């Protein structure tokens, strides 16, 4: 199992005491499969993604990625996991302003010690071929989002975690990008876990995990 989440609990401290957000969440994701994470606003989707990415720690339960328990790792271990096995596509693109689009695309792959491969071919599929020598500030929000998607895919992570990755794109471009992400994840044998509010996009993936009040519904 690529990702194995068991009985994960998480509360946030509030003035009224700990506020439970995840109340015993369990699910698995096999390599090469795609899973949509849905649920109403505040149901804990982003929190769950952050815990899986090792950006925050669960209060209870286990999260195993390729058999390694993220919650048992120290910060250095989690950083290594994020670099080597996990690809994050979040709403903040975190592109590097001083690097061109082409260099932004290949940077993470090189950082992870991987040959980025055919950057130009992927840029073409992402509709970025004409923008390769531009800088992030010279791109629209949707174009920046496509660079962020491409950059993650080129590093060929085993597990791709995406939080509304097509949220800034118009419907047609969003569908195309979603299809591309799904196909590239399948081609490389990666697992894809994607948060979305869109029923249409959720239906494009293999399966769905619906959160309701911090539990799998
Ligand atoms: N750092 C934090 N401190 C305190 N409470 C938080 C924190 N982060 C999230 N929460 C609360 O936890 C709950 C779940 O938030 P989360 O962002 O995981 O929901 P979500 O399902 O991703 O929502 P949305 O669809 O609106 O993005 C919310 O009630 C939110 O207010």
From TrEMBL:
Q: By its UniProt entry, which Pfam families does this protein fall under? A: ABC_tran
Name the UniProt key words of this record, in alphabetical order: ATP-binding, Nucleotide-binding, Transport
According to the entry, every stretch annotated as the ABC transporter domain falls at: 3-217
Query: Does the keyword Iron belong to this entry?
Result: no
| InterPro entries per record | AAA+_ATPase, ABC_transporter-like_ATP-bd, ABC_transporter-like_CS, ABC_transpr_LolD-like, MacB-like_ATP-bd, P-loop_NTPase
**SMART domains given for it?**
AAA (SM00382)
The terms under GO molecular function for this entry are: ATP binding
User: Could you tell me which PANTHER family the record lists for this protein?
Assistant: IMPORT ATP-BINDING PROTEIN, TRANSPORTER, PUTATIVE-RELATED
UniProt protein name = ABC transporter ATP-binding protein
